[in-house]
Amino acid sequence: MELREIKESEIGKVKELRDYAFRVPASGGEDDFNYWVQNARRLGLFYGEHLLAQVLTYPLSVSILGERFSMGGIAYVASFPEFRNGGLITRLMTESLVRMRDAGQLVSYLSPFSIPFYRRFGYEVFTEKVELEIPSHALPDMGTVPGRVMRLTSKDGTGISVVRELYNRLALTKKSGMMMRDDAWWLRLARRGYTKEIAVYCDMNGVTMGYMLFTLDAEVFKVHEMVTLNYEAEKGLWRFIGTHGMMVDRVVAKNVGSLRDVSLAFPSPDFQKREILDFMMRIVDVEAFLSKYRFEWTDNALYLQVEDEIAPWNEGVFEIRGSFVKRVESTKEPVLAITIQALGQMLMGFARPRDLVHYEKAQGSDITVEAWEKAIPHVRSDFYDAF
Fold first, then answer.
1. Which residues form the N-acetyltransferase domain (predicted)?
2. Do 155 and 195 reside in the same domain of the chain?
3. Which of 123, 137, 203, 323 might form a disulfide with 118, Cβ 3.0–4.6 angstroms?
């Protein structure tokens, strides 16, 4: 059995395994799949010329506390059923991490079929989403707003240019973990039909403060994402949705905030809400990640002891003094001992240090935990995309 990169001439084998394992067509069509599989790092396990298992890694990037981090997006992890439980995926995932580290991809994301399965490889949930389903008769009254909503189109490029600017402002300033969308990614969203309908909210001075990507599918109004820079824009876009109440039976909305956001935003949030934990991440190279991470200023050095069974280069004790990070053999200073999974959750803003200690994902004294509470910025993680 040979582990090697899958040649471009062998992409047909990737498609065969994809179709057999997933049983559903690629949502963006074959043109979209072909683009990404050609640009991905393709690792496979072969027996002779037969592809038994595969892992693809997309070259992407995300924003963490306003800094761009190179990210390896894991996709189409699959093996033929008769080769499952034979350790093939473990070999491929482990080698993928080595290749990501060599390529400078400091973090990795994936959409899990099983959260416990990917926890074995150091991945952990880092964002929570909520999907809303609102019957048209129950659409909330959001009151009046001073601005107005305009329709834009992606066909002439005007709509996308406005949307991109707002999305980047959100990704860089208000969230942690968001995709840094380049031209290829916006084209991917277009192939999926997400940018077909665009609504933009402008305040009373004509300044664009929010947008919504949506589609009308039969009698369902589907919100693919809503990005707003203030509550006025959010109310304005929901009022726009409400004007369609006579045209649709219900509204299905995702990427509109967390359950807490919904409870704060709606005067009467008495409709169906489904919480989703659909993406996981892991830090690929701890030392390089810590060196780039924007800690809050602290007088004293912090010490971190990391446990990572899959990527041994991450294990050990790290000394952090502002932006200066180095690995040390040992220390007599108080240390926060933490798993690679919990470290990702903490630095992304999904979980606070004291919560991780409470749930036994990390260990440290009260004084140590308090120091880390001051060092980790209070920015919430989120992720609107999928692959």
1. 1-146
2. yes
3. 123
